[in-house]
Amino acid sequence: MKRTAKLEQELAATKEYLQSVIETQEATNEELQSANEEILSSNEELQSTNEEMETAKEELQSANEELNTVNDELHSRNLEITQINND
Predict the structure, then answer these.
(1) Is the dihedral of CA 21, 23, 26, 31 positive or negative?
(2) 1: pLDDT confidence band, cut at 50, 70 and 90?
(3) CB neighbour burial string for 18-49, b if at least 16 within 10 angstroms, e if fewer
(4) Per-residue pLDDT tens for 27-49?
(5) What does the alpha-carbon distance between residue 80 and residue 87 come to, in Å, rounded to a whole number?
(6) Would you state the pLDDT for residue 87?
(7) Strand runs (DSSP E) across the chain, as ranges?
(8) So what's the pLDDT on residue 74?
(9) What is the C-alpha to C-alpha distance for residues 5 and 11, in angstroms, rounded to an integer?
(10) CA dihedral over 12, 13, 14, 15, signed as positive or negative
(11) How many Cα atoms are found within 13 Å in the side-chain-facing hemisphere of 24?
């Protein structure tokens, strides 16, 4: 009888311990899920920002090409004016 009572006490203690472990695990899982959701949200924001930056880069490249074209035209005109003035 004494042994049975001791085993029942150990079983109850083990159940209590396992319940505590399960609760801790569940809390940790919830924290990880929350952190994961935050990371996913941040990732979406970064992707959106990256797309905006890519668009801005393309616009700057286009503006740069236009400025290079205008610069080349002005350079040619300056050469023409210099030749006319030298003649």
Answers:
(1) negative
(2) confident
(3) eeeeeeeeeeeeeeeeeeeeeeeeeeeeeeee
(4) 999 999 999 999 999 999 999 99
(5) 11
(6) 84
(7) none
(8) 98
(9) 10
(10) positive
(11) 6
Name the DSSP letter for residue 87. -
- Match 């503006």 to its residue by tokens: 63
Token pair for 61:
């490249």
Closest CA to 70 of 85, 15, 62: 62
Tokens of 78: 């300056």
Please give the Cα distance from 12 to 20 (Å, whole number).
12
Residue 29: what residue type? Answer: N
**CA–centroid distance for 38 within its chain:** 10
The three-state secondary structure class of 22 is: helix
Tokens describing residue 17? 């311990």
Tens-digit pLDDT profile for residues 43-74: 999 999 999 999 999 999 999 999 999 999 99
